Amino acid sequence: MKELIKKIIDQISIPEITFGDVRYTSSDFQSIFFEKGNLKQLLKEKNDEAIGVRVLINGCWGFASTSLTSQPSEIDRIIKKAITNAKHGSLFKTNKVIYTPLKPTIASYRFEPEENPFTMSEEEKISYFEKVSKLLTGHEKIVYSYTDCNFFKQYKIYANTEGTFTDSVVYDVMPDMFVLSSDGNHTFSRTWPGHMGARRGGFEKVRAFRFEENTERIIKEAIDLLSAPAIEDERADLIIGGGHLALQIHESIGHATEADRIFGMEISYAGKTFVKKNMLGNFKYGSEIVTIYNDSTLEGGLGYHPVDDEGVPGKKTDVIKNGILTDLQTSREIAPLLGLEPSSNMLASFASDFPLIRMTNLCLAHGHGSLDDLIKETEKGYLVDFTKTWSIDDNRYNFQFSTEIGYKIVDGKIVGIVKEPTYYGITPEFWASCDRICGADEWEVHGTFNCGKGEPGQVMHLSHGTAPARFKNVVCKVGG
């Protein structure tokens, strides 16, 4: 396949093409789903291949792709199609794309999981999840339960006309279990490990979540929630656990700092942003302890890469530094319009997709101390975690989040639980209320397979590193 990619690069290295690149992906998938203790679904797909060709002619992109990677006539067709699309599109394009050349990158990366889920026996994987699934059944007030896991492997080649040539192999996994309790009038759910449970790795990451050991916990909490009180405070201090805080980062900072939204290049599907060009370097996005950085060199994250899908080497950049907005997630096309350097954030899910500005590993820098210390230092408030629902406006400015459970804190101790705590905020005001972030020992990388963007839609694997953090005087749901 490498020779084919090199041959395509030779074919598009012609004077009329300002820049061109080629991507190849071969992806393997497996999904296991148990419902109420019974195996309901076992899906497998192997060697899902695609080649995509992108060319820049007269300031306009042309793109075409195919899944028929072994047919020379099909490869010729997509090359011609990409060129034709660019030429035709350039007749109508008023704002021409300008690319500043980059030095070529030659790299090869292979992630090796400790336990390769694609070479393990089906019996071993099924047996593991069957055991967990059975442990979730047999309780009178648990009316529904499931366990599921998605495994993913992708081999990728990226090459461009500047001389960049890289290939990589990665493995990702996303396991989950769920119970639903009912007393005939109300229902409450508990999940484990929560909404952001995807990890870079193999079956060892499934074992690390200790599913069997946590079945009793989520069953008990789901049942206890049936009679638990709601938050009655109008405002409260909230300690937000890492799993849910990862989603808060994702929605109120991650999407808001994707620079294509500033220029109206991403509106109709996933919204725009309140962030403006003139905010760079002066806008207070959060308190002084809030530093958010984008790091595609973080190998433990799902967003790691040697280069992105336009040839920018992986890098670490501070998006928010000590509370001030200092950078954005950009592309080679958009960065110069903002006076920035490209941030290595242009990615496509598969070679059949056109690359977009996407989050990679967007992280909150850790502070100090343990979660136990933070709870002890909180006179009155709540520890909230495990995402239930969320809503945020098209500008990523006003939001509402709820979690499955909250743990009430009085005089530095957890004294009980509350059901489905809900809190509200305005993005910069909320992040300005952050007064404490836990330390490195509490910091963890959380991930998802399901970040949607673009038309046609793409879903991206990405991560957020964070530790639990406290937010002061947050607006909460009043009453039950």
Short description:
Helix content is 19%, strand content 39%. By secondary structure, the protein is α+β, with helices and mostly antiparallel strands.
Structure, described:
The chain folds into two domains: 2-227, PmbA/TldD fold, CATH 3.30.2290; 235-476, no CATH class. The chain contains eight helices and 23 strands. 19% of the residues lie in helices and 39% in strands. With 480 residues, it is an alpha+beta fold. A hairpin with an 8-residue loop joins strand 13 and strand 14 (356-357). The radius of gyration is 24 Å and the shape is globular.
Strand-helix topology:
Layout: H1 2-12, E1 19-35, E2 38-57, E3 60-66, H2 72-90, E4 106-110, H3 122-135, E5 142-160, E6 165-182, E7 187-192, E8 199-200, H4 203-208, H5 211-224, E9 235-240, H6 242-254, E10 292-295, E11 316-321, E12 324-325, E13 346-347, E14 356-357, E15 362-364, H7 371-376, E16 380-392, E17 398-410, E18 413-419, E19 422-426, H8 427-432, E20 434-437, E21 444-453, E22 458-466, E23 469-476
Parallel strand pairs: 4-6, 9-16
Antiparallel strand pairs: 1-2, 1-5, 2-3, 5-6, 6-7, 6-8, 9-23, 10-11, 10-15, 11-12, 13-14, 16-17, 17-18, 17-19, 19-23, 20-23, 21-22
